[in-house]
Amino acid sequence: MRTLHNPRSTLHALEPMGRGTPEVESLTSYFCRLAYSHGMTAQKLAGWVLAHFEQSVCEKYGWHQRSFSSMSPESEQWAAWLAALTGIASLDQHTLAPWRAVLGTPGLAPKSDRWCPCCLTEDRASGGEPYLRLAWDVAPVTVCVRHKVQLATTCPHCHRTNVRNRSAVVVPGYCTSCGGFLGDAETKPATPEALWTARQVGLMLQAPPKVASEGLVPLLETVIKRMADGRPSTFASRYGFSKSGISHWLNKGGIPTLKAWLTIALHGGIGLDKLFAGDVEDWELPLTPIQMSIELPESPRAGIKSRELDWDGIRAQLRAMLKEPVAVSVHEASERVGVDRKNLYLRANLETRALADRYLRHRTSVGEQRQARLQAQIGDILDERLAAGYEGMSARDIWNQFDTEAQSVPGIFRHISQVIGSRRH
């Protein structure tokens, strides 16, 4: 296990795997390896991180039920937290969050956990740690480009599914049910079509996109101009899209799915890496038609991120959350209703601000209670040491009496100094 030298980090400065390559490690995998490096369960580490940043944790919280590697705001938040604690920058590159502005979410998440047995075996044989690739968490990717085999979904020992990381205790590469090595699974050869898709996603994952949300429509207009002389209806009929879907992309803030982008890349003869980098100046269509086909969703509007939401119903849900006994954060509300926080503030401002104010009051109350308990503990330690004959105790002396968790509380030395000062008056 390789860690980078960073004396200022709170957690081990664990080096991520595969950054800048198609085999970039997922944040889920990084988190599991980080927990293992500390001799902790993934569940315990998740609870510690949340407590460190003063986030409330419900009793039934399961870390593996969270979206660590997805495109959600939660993934972005966890990447930021772990970056702050480890000192390792840009951990969001180990999630799909950087592609939120250019990729619609439908059809992106796989229905079950997948992995390449050959990759895990190769990781272990080389003397390194087996790790989980981000590409394995992208639904259209069903094969490994490196080994040209289909991804596995079933443990070869206990024959159960979803045993890759859905547990409190996880060692990447080993079954969470029976402990068997997942690299022992039998493999099947990959098809050329599946290899092409996986290769394109790998190119995409090598670097974050350069096209921002405001550049999406100009990019789509360029695509339609090159592939259909600028005629959306021709583009739709020629490549199997619906006219209403194309209109939604261009006029109503819709975002193409990964399958839609793959179709554009396939027939346009351009890689996803170049598309999302906006590198289309010298793009020329292939001279011969592409024979390979990629199945698109049947519904004309499937795979299109819609902005047409039931805002009356969403506002009603937010008002109901205001009556719940435990304060709900805007982040949690956003997750529940499936709408990002920005749009909640724009379209349900009254209810969203009320949620934010209530949660802030809750956080303030909890913080004050926690501060009172901490200062009482500091006072007890100080009184005990002074009674034993120790004089002139420093804040560092008192800090050394705490356990690791208490030592890492933000502002701990400020609290100690306040208690020492109060004893002097």
Give a written overview of the molecule:
With 425 residues, the protein is mainly alpha-helical. It has 3 domains: 27-184, no CATH class; 209-306; 311-424, no CATH class. It has helices spanning 27-37, 42-52, 73-86, 117-125, 192-205, 216-228, 232-239, 243-251, 258-268, 272-276, 311-322, 330-337, 341-347, 349-387, 395-399, 404-407, 412-424; strands spanning 143-144, 149-150. A two-stranded antiparallel sheet has the order 1-2. Helix 11 (311-322) packs parallel to helix 14 (349-387) and helix 13 (341-347) packs across helix 14 (349-387). It starts with 26 loop residues before the first helix and ends with a helix. The model is unreliable at 296-307 (pLDDT under 50).
Summarize the structure in short.
Helix content is 45%, strand content 1%. With 425 residues, the protein is mainly alpha-helical. The protein has a two-stranded antiparallel ribbon with strand order 1-2.
Which secondary structure elements does this structure contain, and how are they paired or packed?
Layout lengths: L26 H11 L4 H11 L20 H14 L30 H9 L17 E2 L4 E2 L41 H14 L10 H13 L3 H8 L3 H9 L6 H11 L3 H5 L34 H12 L7 H8 L3 H7 L1 H39 L7 H5 L4 H4 L4 H13 L1
Antiparallel strand pairs: 1-2
Helix pairs in contact: 7-8, 11-14, 13-14, 14-17
